[in-house]
Amino acid sequence: MSVQITATGYDLLRDPRLNKGTAFSDIERRTRGIEGLLPPASITIELQVARLHAELANLDNDLQKYLLLSDLQARNETLFYAVLMSDPASFMPIVYTPTVGEACQKFDEIFHSPRGMYLPISERGRLREILSNWPQKDVRFIVVTDGERILGLGDLGVGGMGIPIGKLALYTACAGVPPQYCLPVALDVGTNNQDLLDDPLYLGLRQNRVRGEDYRAFVDEFVEAVQALYPLCCIQWEDFANLNAVPILERYRDKVCTYNDDIQGTAAVALAGMLGALRISGQKLTEQRFLFLGGGSAATGIAELISQAMALEGMDIATARSRNALFDIKGLMVRSRTDLAEFQKPFAQDHAPISVFADAVKALQPTGIIGVSTVPKLFNQQVIEAMAEINERPIIFPYSNPTSRSECTAEEAYRWSQGRAIFASGSPFPPVEIAGKTFVPGQGNNVYIFPAMGMAVFATEAKRVTEEMFIVAARAVAEQVTDQNLATGLIYPPQSQILKASLHVATRVAEYIFDKGIARVSRPHDIGALIRGRAYRPVYPT
Ligand SMILES: O=C([O-])CC(=O)C(=O)O
Ligand SMILES: [Mg+2]
C-alpha cells in the first residue's frame, strides 16, 4: 500500500495506522524526524509478530491477553492485524467470544483507550454533529449495539461496546475489510442493570433504559445521521434485546443497507452447519425436524431461514415451519399459548402443552436440537441420551455464548451419545477424545458469515442486504467443508483457514449481488479477483 504520509516525529509514532514501532527503517527514521526516538535496531514485522507471540504466551489469563492486544491495536494497527491473522484459531477466542464477554463485563474496570463512538440518548438532536467528530469520512460499516443483550450475559449497558469493537476487528482479520472503513458504535440509552447503576466506576448514562417512542426516535435519528454522513455505510445491529432487535430490523431492512447479525448471521451459520451435518448423516434437509431451546429472535431467525431453505427444496413453507419447533421458559410453543409474539407464531405447534424439554424431545422426535437459550447445561444427559436413542446421528448444536452459557460442552455431547453426535457450538471447545477417536467440534458462530458479508458488501457497494444473501453465504460456507473435515466431525471450515473461507463466501455473495443488480459498482470480469484485490493485508505502508 502506498500512501502520502506527512506525519513526522512523535505524531508518526502515535498514529496507530502509520506507526511501525521498531520496524521503521533507518531511512524512514532519518526522513521522518524519528531518529533517536526509538532504540537503534530496526526489526522486521515477522520478528515483531514472533515477539508478541512470546509475550502473549507468557500471560496466564485471557483477559490480560485481550488487554495486551487491545493496547497493541491502539498503538500499531498493522501489527495488531498481523498478529491476529498469523494464527486466527488461537487469537479469535481472545479478541472475540468468549473473552470479549468478560471484557464487556469488566469494561469500566479495564477501560484504557477510546475506540469507536458513544452516542448517549441525552444528546438527542445532535447525533449528526457528534458523529462527524469521527476522523474518517468514508465509513462503510458500523456495528452498533445498545448493550441490552450482550452475548448470553444480559444487559451490560455501555460496556457492550466491546462487542462492536471485537466484531469489526474480525471484519478485517477474517475477511480483509480494511479497518479504516469500520466504526464501532454504542447507543447509550441507559441500563437496567442495577449493579452497573450502583457502581461508581460505571462509564455510561446513569439511568434506566429508555423505551417506546423516545427510543425509536433516537434510533431513527441515528440511522438518518449515518445515511447523511456515510451514504455507502452498512449498519449491522448487534446484541439488542428481542423487543428492539425484531422491530428495528423490520423498520430498516428494506430502506437502507443493514442486517441483524444475531438474527440473520446466526441463522446462516446454523443453516451452513445443517448442510454439513446432512453430509455426515446422508439425509435431506426436508427430512429433518428441529427443536429449539429458546424462543427469541435468534431461534426464530434460524427456524425461518431453515424453513426457507426447505421450501427451496420443494416443501411448502407452512409444513417447513411446522418442522421447526420452539421451546422457551414456558414450555413448547403451541398454538394454545396466548403469550406468543407475532414473530414466534409461525412456529407454534399443533400439539398439547409440554413443559419439560426432555419430554418435548421424546414427543416430537427431532433430528436436531439447537440451543439459543443463553442458559447453560440445559442439554443434560437425559436430553442427549434421548436424542441418541431417537437418531443414529443426532444433531446437537448448543449455540449460546459465551462458553459459560453453552447448553452443553462438546465432551458431554460426544460422551452421552457414544460419539454419535454431530456437534457444533457457538463458543469454541477443544477437540475431544472418546474411545481412541478424536472429534473436532466446529464453532457454529456467525463469524463464518458477518465478515464475509461485510467484504461482499464493501467490494460491491451493495444497496441492500437481502435474506437470500444469507442462504447463499450458508451454502458457500458448507461447500468448503472437506470429507477429511467431516471424518473428524468438523462441519465448518477450520478456523485456521478463516480468511480463505471468508473470501470464498464473499465472492459467492458478491456474485449474487451483481446478479440481482443491487451493486453500486460495475460487474468485473473476475469477481474473485475483485474481492481478493480489495482485501486488507497487514503490511506496513511504504
Ligand atoms: O458474538 C458471538 O460470539 C455470536 C453472537 O453474535 C452472539 O452470541 O450474540
Ligand atoms: Mg451477537
List keywords for this structure.
Rossmann fold, binds magnesium ion, 7-stranded mixed sheet, 542 residues, metal ion binding, binds oxaloacetate ion, 5-stranded parallel sheet, alpha/beta, metal-binding, globular, 45% helix, 14 strands, Hemocyanin, N-terminal domain
Count of domain modules: 4
Radius of gyration of CA atoms, rounded to a whole number:
23 Å
| CATH top-level class of the largest domain | Alpha Beta
The rough form would be described as globular
Main β sheet profile: 7 strands, mixed
CATH topology of the largest domain: Rossmann fold
Helical/strand content category: alpha/beta
Which range does the strand content fall in? Answer: 5-15%
pLDDT averaged over residues: 97
Number of DSSP E strands? 14
CATH architecture of the largest domain: 3-Layer(aba) Sandwich
Identify the CATH homologous superfamily of the largest domain: NAD(P)-binding Rossmann-like Domain
Helix content: 40-55%
Structure description:
- The protein has about 550 residues and is an alpha/beta fold.
- The chain has four domains: about 10-95, Hemocyanin, N-terminal domain, CATH 1.20.1370; about 100-255, Malic enzyme, N-terminal domain (Rossmann fold), CATH 3.40.50.10380; about 265-445, 3-Layer(aba) Sandwich (Rossmann fold); about 450-480 and about 490-535.
- Helix content is about 45%, strand content about 10%.
- The protein has helices at about 10-15, 25-30, 45-55, 60-75, 75-85, 90-95, 100-105, 105-110, 125-130, 160-175, 195-200, 210-230, 240-250, 260-280, 295-310, 315-320, 355-365, 380-390, 410-415, 450-460, 465-480, 485, 500-515, 525-535, and strands spanning about 115-120, 140-145, 180-190, 235, 260, 290-295, 325-330, 330, 370, 395-400, 420-425, 430-435, 435-440, 440-445.
- The chain has a seven-stranded mixed β-sheet, sandwiched between helices. A five-stranded parallel β-sheet has the order 1-3-2-4-5, sandwiched between helices. It has a two-stranded antiparallel sheet with strand order 12-13.
- Helix 19 links the parallel strand 10 (about 395-400) and strand 11.
- The mean pLDDT is about 95.
- Magnesium ion binds next to helix 14.
- Oxaloacetate ion binds next to helix 14.
